[in-house]
Specification:
single chain, 152 residues, alpha+beta, Nucleoside Triphosphate Pyrophosphohydrolase, 3 helices, 9 strands, globular
């Protein structure tokens, strides 16, 4: 797993650690694309998520964000400011693994549609601010959307 130094400890930790205390550490990054009162989300069979995902080895946080948005939406984005890093305990049903994710969130804007998305089960949907705060799967994503909404 790549390690990315953090200047400060995570601001919040969401979720509950596994009972046995065993989990894998994961670094992930997500884009908050907001237009008017609408948030770009990805709808998958598992629910609604912000575009983004895991940071690969030897990849910077921003490189991972650009790659993930490109893969999931076929978009180019402009990266603006970042939110404080938060943590999220999650359980991956597919991998049967508990994770503690260091979640990095960036306020971004759409720049261009470059191609069709690579991930066929990922559908772009636009959610109203309040709807995103309710429907996004993870607490950390709901928190991040609220933070960006307060700035506007």
């Amino acid at each position: 797993m790549p390690t990315h130094p953090q200047p400060n400890p995570p601001l919040h930790t969401f979720g509950t650690p596994p009972i046995d205390g065993k989990y894998a550490l994961r670094e992930a990054v997500y884009a908050i694309v907001r237009e008017n009162d609408m948030i770009a989300a990805v709808h998958t069979p598992r629910g609604y998520f912000l575009p983004g995902g895991g940071i690969e080895e030897n990849e910077s946080i921003q490189e991972a964000l650009v790659r993930e948005v490109f893969e999931e939406l076929g978009w180019a984005i402009i990266i603006h400011d970042t939110l404080p890093v938060v943590q999220q305990y999650l359980f991956s049903v597919a991998k049967q693994t508990h994770y503690l994710t260091n979640a990095h969130f960036y306020h971004t804007t759409f720049c261009a549609e470059l191609c069709e998305p690579f991930e066929e089960d990922h559908e772009l949907v636009w959610l109203q601010q309040a709807e995103a705060e309710e429907k996004l799967v993870t607490e950390s994503m709901r928190w991040a959307v609220k933070q960006v909404g307060r700035r506007e």
